[in-house]
Amino acid sequence: MRTLSNKYDVSPAQIATAWAIKRETTPILGVTKVEQVLDAAKAIRVTLTDADMEKLESAALATGVDTRGGWEGNA
Length: 75
Fold this sequence. Notes:
Oligomer: single chain
Order of helices and strands: HHHH
Organism: Streptococcus merionis
Protein name: Aldo/keto reductase family
């Protein structure tokens, strides 16, 4: 995730938010300060490529993280 963070000059949290948006889900963010909202909003400007998405999915699988939503079956 750091590689993509550096590529897009954003934080890992913004990459995670951009990933969720690219998957056409609505990320639920726990923010309590205006600065956190503004920071999270920057993720909208990140357009992850299909290759970026594959890297993130591969990293998740390699670490045992299941990224499928319940609507995708067998989650």
